[in-house]
Structures are given as C-alpha cells and as structure tokens.
C-alpha cells in the first residue's frame, strides 16, 4: 500500500518519496481523506504550507466530521499568519469535540 510506504519514507526523512507515494495512494483512492492529510503533513515538513493547507482542505472536504483535520489546517494557517482563518478551524474542531487550540483565539 502506497500510504504505508509513504509513512515509512516520511519516518526515514525522505519527504519527496513520501509525497510521491501519498500522491499515488490518492490517485488510486481519491476519496480517502487520510491520504490528503498525510501528504499535507509531508508538504508542511518540507516547508510548503500552501500545499499543506490545500491538502488539508481536501481532507476536510472528504471527512468534514474529523476534528483533527481542522486542527492541523488551523495550525498551518496560524504558521502562515492567518489567525482569523486558523481560529475558524479551531472553533470547528471544538464544535466536533477537540478544543485544544482554542487558547490561540480570543
């Protein structure tokens, strides 16, 4: 499975190979939200927060009731300086039961 291979590459620190395998997993099963989240995390680790945010948005589109996707995207948005948008995601995660990041929002 490409997703497991991607995770193995990511663990080894080869983020380019991880992204390639996560992309292959997405091509084979484009409805699986976790593949987008995994690739988004790899993009973030490479410093590409824009692609990371796009992938987390895709994950949310596919699994809108998963609070961790909102939390992760909110974290990336916060790193980009978009606090208002980040707080929107943190609030949505809180509605879904995970309120850890609300401390950043007033």
Commentary on this structure:
The chain has 106 residues and is mostly helical. Helices cover 74% and strands 0% of the residues. The radius of gyration is 14 Å and the shape is globular. The mean pLDDT is 96.
The class by helix and strand makeup works out as mainly alpha
Distance between the termini: 43 Å
User: N-to-C SSE series?
Assistant: HHHHHH
Shape summary: globular
What is Rg? 14 Å
Mean pLDDT: 96
Low-confidence stretches: none
Helix amount: over 70%
So how many helices?
6
Largest sheet: none
Q: Tell me the strand percentage band.
A: under 5%
The counted number of beta strands is: 0
List keywords for this structure.
106 residues; mainly alpha; 74% helix
Topology of helices and strands:
Elements lengths: L1 H11 L2 H14 L4 H13 L3 H14 L4 H13 L3 H13 L11
Helix pairs in contact: 1-2, 1-3, 2-3, 3-4, 4-5, 5-6
